Amino acid sequence: MTPRWLAASFSVLALCLTGAATPATAAEATRTPAPIAVAAVDATAPNFVGLGNWFNSAPLTIADLRGKVVLVNFWTYGCSNCVATLPHVAELYAKYRDRGLVIVGIHTPEFPFEHSAANVQAALKRHGITYPVAQDNESRTWEAYHNQYWPSQYIVDQHGKIVLHHDGEGQYDEIDRTIARLLNASS
């Protein structure tokens, strides 16, 4: 081994070791994002705006739903993560609708083909969705909620305040417990 080769080998090894031990890199590797964000106490749920077709219901407003617990579910049928959450959302609807839970699906398309009312209707039938769903083809309700991800759930209490916001899949037990707590508080 030549001294030059040996020095180069140690330099590469040192670079690899210090790079792997950099706190930011190690933290990123082990960090898990906080999946549930509890909204500020005074965060009033925005009204539904700019919606087109409504399925399974006449048009609804947040004001119409005062006194009810509402789960606003932003989704689109072309999103596999959204589709994965639908059985859980439907289960919540079946479990709590007679106790005052209203679910409003806000179908906000990501791709042009998802704008079609016929395609949305077919997706509702395919997934057995019977709760109210509205098309947000211009993303106006999405923007009113400052939403950024599919799927995304907002739980609104009986006073119209957002009490929980969750992006993505999972946290089904936490969502269920929050809804049950709100419904129990009103009975």
Major sheet summary line: 7 strands, mixed
Question: What's the overall average pLDDT, rounded?
Answer: 85
Query: What's the CATH C level of the largest domain?
Result: Alpha Beta
The structure class reads alpha/beta
Q: How many domains, as an integer?
A: 2
Give the full name of the CATH homologous superfamily of the largest domain. Answer: Glutaredoxin
CATH topology of the largest domain: Glutaredoxin
Q: What would CATH call the architecture of the largest domain?
A: 3-Layer(aba) Sandwich
Number of helices: 6
Principal-axes shape call: globular
Give the SSE order as H and E letters. Answer: HHEEEHEHEHEEH
Strand arrangement, major sheet = 1-7-6-3-4-5-2
What share of the residues does DSSP label as strand, in percent?
15-25%
The rounded distance between the terminal residues' Cα atoms is 81 Å
For the structure shown, list the relevant keywords.
187 residues, alpha/beta, Glutaredoxin, 2 domains
